[in-house]
Amino acid sequence: MEDLSPKPGDLEPIETASRDEIAALQLDRMRWSLRHAYENVPFYKKSFDDAGVLPEDLHELSDLAKFPFTVKGDLRDNYPFGMFAVPRDRVARIHASSGTTGQPTVVGYTKSDLEVWGQVVARSLRAAGMRRGDLLHNAYGYGLFTGGLGIHLGADTLGLATVPVSGGMTQRQVRLIEDFRADGITVTPSYALSILDEYKAQGLDPRRSPLKVGIFGAEPWTNAMRREIEEAFDMHAVDIYGLSEVMGPGVANECVETKDGLHVWEDHFYPEVIDPETGEVLPDGELGELVFTSLTKEAFPIIRYRTRDLTRLHPGTARSMRRMEKVTGRSDDMMILRGVNVFPTQIEEQLLEVTALAPHFQVELNRVGHKDEMRIKCEAAPGSEADDARQAAAGLLVRKIKTIVGVTVAVDVADPGGVERSQGKAVRVVDNRPKE
Asked: What is this structure's pTM?
């Protein structure tokens, strides 16, 4: 893999500023953000008043713990524009969630917000190893989803040539990567596996592709998946983090030279990790739920937003800003099977260690009698289609999951291509259990 480390002068001064400088900037911006939200969003005025706190009660960063949380339900209750803090004629862009599980959540951006978004995504792409003049194959979905347009905005800011291919039509994805000689790709990790399958289907060696780096986000993925992708493509694979409620992609990113967690761009987004049950702020290094407060957003300030993503915060390494561990689970995608907490990423890690199995899978939960059952639907790797090879692979995966995760599962191994492919975010869990 090519060395994509930054050269002297590549970084912005804030990326290497002292922690004291960063904290002073955060405190100043947090005071503004709390006041802006309180004075311009009726929800926040009521929320703060009900909690008995005012913006001027913030004297130091730790005082943020006095303020109430914001949750997704609050955004849905204020659909469509009740959380906006500026008049409609100052809103330059609107994005929204799909709303497949309820009322969509709607977010807005002023012209200044879009400039900041472009800057933090550009910073993320540069941290991943992209440089001005490189060609980016952007396979995130365009539209109301923030992924495609958010990445495109940052690519324009950094000075990349962007191919706005969006998702789907996987044969064309491969052709454009090869014909246009893309330096980097932005895509969900599960769809990257579909592109990898298509390379093989076309008789092409993915290790000879022009790609130098893949920037993967929008769903949890593991370091085992990183190794799988890097080995297959002979390219760097780094993680990008974001969510529409906080900004979109570009809230945090791994640095290609270290790949040791995602540096949070703390000059714009203040992170906390809390105990999901009690709401208590946890010290850095402890596992908990990630919470964000925006520091510079005008149209849609967000105060102590509970992301449901589980991670830890650590000191900075390649940059001064703190790192968050790769998100490998969410408090709301955790499966409880016979009293054991299980995350899809734990299944993925064990699956990737069984060489006779392809990396595609889906977890199905069923109720059999009075007992819950977990069934892993996966597929044989090419060359391992024989019945005895499949049975051996299934048995090995059952044993590994029992030993490492602590639950007994059933495993079905289909023919190569037997697991439905993702065209974006993968649907990892299908819960067929009756609703209580």
From this structure: 0.85
